[in-house]
Amino acid sequence: MLVLLVTLAVCITAMEWTLRVLRYGSIAHLSGEHVLRGPHPTRGWALLAGERAYQRSLDYAVEVVINDLGQRDRPHAYEREAGVFRAVVLGDSFMEAYQVPLEQSLPFLLQERLSDRRVEVINLGVGGYGTAQQLLALEEEGLRYRPDLVVLAFFTGNDIQNNSRALQTELFGEDHAESYARPYARTASLTGAIEWTPPDYARISREAEKAQRRRASPWRAAIRFVQPTVLANLVRQAFGRIGTWVGLPPAPPKAYFGRTLLEDFESPAWDEAWLVTQRLILEMKRVSAAAGADFALLVVPGKLQVDPAFRAQASAQYGGVRLDVGRVNRGLTDFCEENDVALIDPTPRLASRTEAGEQFYYQLEDHHWNPLGHDVATDLLIRGLDEQDLLPPPR
Question: Are residues 268 and 201 in the same domain?
C-alpha cells in the first residue's frame, strides 16, 4: 500500500510539473492579475510597470506582462511620429484583456488591422475601472499621447455601479476595496460641476503592504507553489463542461442587475449613478475635444445580453428574476443621440451570431470575451468608426 501511494504521488507530481511547463514554461507557477496592481493616489489602483504574472481560471491560462509605462500593451512613446493617427482606448478588464494573450486583445488587434492607415492604438484599460477612473486616466495619462481619437469601452455589466459608493457598498460591503479604493464623482445635472471624493489612499497602501508581506512569507510561497494545481484545474474544467456552470456572484439581484438589466426597476441610488455616469461621459468628450481629439463610446455588452442560454441559467439562479437585457443599451442610445456622442454598439450583432451557434464569451468560470469575442468586436468597432468618419480612410 505504501509503495502504491508513493508511486501515485510521484506520477501525479510528474503530470502536474509537465502540465506547468507546457502551459507556463515554468514549474514555479504564478497566478492572479491582482498582483499586478498597486495603489494610486487619484485612481485608487493602477497596473504596476514592468511586472508580469500568470492569470488563470477554468477557462484560460495567460501570461500578463505590463510595459514600463504601466499598460498592458506594447510600448508607446509619448512623442508622436509625424503622419501617425493616434487612438487612446479607455476601459476596464475587457480592454486590459488579461483573459487572452496580448496579441488577441481588441486594442492590439485594432492597431494591427489599421496598420495600413498608420493608426497607433494606446491601451489604457485597467481591470475594475469605472467611468470616473477612466476619465482621470484620460486626463492624467491619455492626453500626454496627443490623441486624435478617444474610445471609451463602456461595460454594461457594472460600469454604472462602479460610479456609486452606495451601490458598491450594497454589493461588497463598506470594508471591501471595491467600495473604498476607488474615486467617486457627484453632480447635480448633466451640465453641473463635478465634485470628487478621492479613494482612501492610506488604507489602500496599508492593505497592499499587508498583501505583499503575506505573499513574501515562505509558507504562502509554498501554498502558491502547489495550489491550485493545473491538474485539478483540468478536472474541474471537465466536470464544468458536463454540468451547468453559471458562476454569478451570490449578490441580491436588485444590487447586481439593477437599473441596467431589470424590468421596471427604479431607485434613487441607481438614478444618481446613471446621472453621474452620463456627466462623466460628457466630461470625457469635452476633455477630448479640448485636446483636439474626437470621442466615441463603444458598448461592451455582458454575456447575459447576448447569450440566451446563459441568461436563462442566470434567471433561474436568481429565482426567475425578470430581465430586460436591452434596457441599458436603449438608455445609452438615447443619451448619445441627445448629446451628439458617437456610439458603436455591437450587441445586436453579437447576439444574433450567438444564437447561430458562435461563442464570444468564456463558458465556465469567466464571463469575459474569449479570443473570438475580441476578434469580432474589433471588426465591428472599425466598421462603426468608419461609418462615422472617425478614422483615416483606407489607403
Answer: yes
Residues 12, 325: Cα–Cα separation, whole Å:
45
Half-sphere exposure of 8 (CA within 13 A, CB side): 5
Cα 288 to Cα 215: distance, rounded to the nearest angstrom: 40
In this structure, what DSSP letter does residue 339 have? T
Q: Residue 351: what are its φ and ψ, rounded to 5°? A: -65, -45
pTM: 0.89
- For cell 487619484, the residue is 42
CB 281 within 8 A of CB 299: no
Burial of residue 217, with CB atoms counted within 10 A of its CB: 0-12 exposed, 13-18 middle, 19 or more buried: exposed
Query: Is residue 393 situated within a structural domain?
Result: no
Amino acid at the residue 40: H
| DSSP line for 152-188 | EEEETTTHHHHT-HHHHHHHH-TTSHHHHSS-EEE-S
Residue 392: inside a domain, yes or no? no
Same domain, 17 and 149: no
Does residue 394 form part of some domain? no
Share above pLDDT 90 across residues of the chain, in percent, rounded to a whole number: 69
- The CA R_g of the chain, rounded to the nearest whole Å, is 22
Same domain, 134 and 17: no
Q: Are 120 and 76 within 8 A, CB to CB? A: yes
- 148 closest CA partner among 235, 83, 208, 64: 83
Handedness of CA 294, 295, 299, 300 (dihedral sign): positive
- Domain that residue 43 falls in: 31-387
Instruction: Determine phi and psi for 106, rounding to 5 degrees.
Output: -55, -50
Q: Are strands 85-90 and 119-123 parallel, antiparallel or unpaired?
A: parallel
- Cα maximum dimension of the chain: 76
SS3 228: coil
H/E stretch holding 61 reads strand 61-65
pLDDT in tens, 335-394: 999 999 999 999 999 999 999 999 999 987 889 999 999 999 999 999 999 999 999 998
CA distance 42 to 92: 16
Range among 10-19, 56-65, 104-113, 306-315 with highest mean pLDDT value: 104-113
One-letter amino acid for residue 287 of the chain: V
Residue partners of 66: CB distance under 8 A and separation at least 6: 36, 47, 48, 49, 50, 51, 52, 72
